[in-house]
Design a protein that fits this description.
The protein is of the alpha/beta class and 146 residues long. It has one domain: HAD superfamily/HAD-like (Rossmann fold), CATH 3.40.50. 34% of the residues lie in helices and 21% in strands. The protein is built from five helices and seven strands. It has a five-stranded parallel beta sheet, with helices on both faces. A two-stranded antiparallel ribbon has the order 2-3. α4 packs across α5. The relative contact order is 0.19. The mean pLDDT is 93. The chain binds magnesium ion (MG). Magnesium ion (MG) binds next to loops.
């Protein structure tokens, strides 16, 4: 069975820092600026390299909510892989905002569900957020933090 490689988006592959100030104050504006996001050069190249491999399955696991699916897929297909499939992008349900939930736990649970509990299927996770990195490492997952 193919192994899974997991990429976070914001802060890992995507530089969305220019609009982050609007995230908690003006969600409409925050979303409207998504097409101005840029890709971090080094991580973008690593990510593309994995996306083009056929012997592993590369997925995105992001704390962005489903409301951002369309713009997020547009970004991935524009900057990383033009035919990236919709079903390899894992996003938070719209009602689960950062204040309402534990994002590190949600990410870990979603990932374990994806591999049906078999951690050996996870090759590695690329993730920038230290609390997520720590939680995943605590259960033996290899995490690369840019
Ligand atoms: Mg991040």
């Amino acid at each position: 069975m193919k192994k899974i490689v997991v990429f976070d988006l914001d802060g890992t592959v995507v530089d969305n820092g220019h609009r982050y100030i609007y995230h908690f104050v003006d969600m409409r504006k925050y979303l409207s600026l998504a097409d101005k996001d840029e890709t971090f050069e080094a991580m973008g190249q690593i990510c593309k390299w994995y996306l083009n491999r056929t012997d592993v399955i590369t997925v995105f696991l992001t704390a962005r909510m489903e409301i951002e699916r369309k713009s997020t897929l547009a970004y991935i297909r524009r900057d990383l892989k033009h035919d990236f499939p919709d079903n390899r992008l894992y996003m938070k349900p719209n009602n689960l905002t950062e204040e309402k939930m534990d994002t590190p736990r949600w990410k870990l649970q979603t990932l374990l569900k994806l591999v049906k509990g078999d951690k050996n299927r996870i090759m590695c996770v690329f993730e920038d957020r230290s609390d997520i990195v720590d939680l995943m490492r605590s259960v033996g997952i290899v995490v690369i933090q840019p």
